[in-house]
Amino acid sequence: MTKIVFITHDGTTTNIEATDGDSLMETAVNNSVPGIDADCGGGCACATCHVYIEDDFVEKLEPASELEIDMLDFAEDVSTNSRLSCQISIKPDMDGMKVTTPESQH
């Protein structure tokens, strides 16, 4: 299991032992993390699972696809570390990663 720390815009943290291979979005939804609605169910067809990835981990992730980049155009307050959590699969090298939800999703 890989430990992921979800942080809401107001600083509330949720520590989760995530299952490798699951998406960040599935992990958040299955653990009732506020701010990740996942309206499309993980189909990369909305931006309601927008998150900010801790800078130290951005380079460890697979690069965003063109579709994900296009979907991020629909998100508010996009930053260089913005990703859609439905497009990130949990891997052991993400252990301890911090993921923050944007204020606009609360």
Features:
alpha+beta, 22% strand, globular, five-stranded mixed sheet
Task: Detail the topology: elements first, then pairings.
Layout (H helix, E strand, L loop, with lengths): L1 E6 L5 E6 L5 H7 L19 E4 L1 H4 L7 H7 L9 E3 L12 E4 L6
The share of residues in extended strands comes to 15-25%
Strand order of the largest sheet: 2-1-5-3-4
C-alpha termini separation? 28 Å
Helix content: 10-25%
Output the CATH class name. Alpha Beta
Shape: globular
What value does the average pLDDT take?
95
Secondary-structure-based class equals: alpha+beta
Q: Tally of extended strands?
A: 5
At the third CATH level, what is the topology name? Ubiquitin-like (UB roll)
CATH architecture, please? Answer: Roll
Main sheet properties? 5 strands, mixed
**From the alpha-carbon coordinates, what is the Rg to the nearest angstrom?**
12 Å
Number of domains: 1
Give the count of helical stretches: 3
- SSE string, helix = H, strand = E? EEHEHHEE
Q: Would you identify the CATH H-level superfamily?
A: Beta-grasp domain
Q: Any low-confidence stretches, pLDDT <50, length ≥5?
A: none
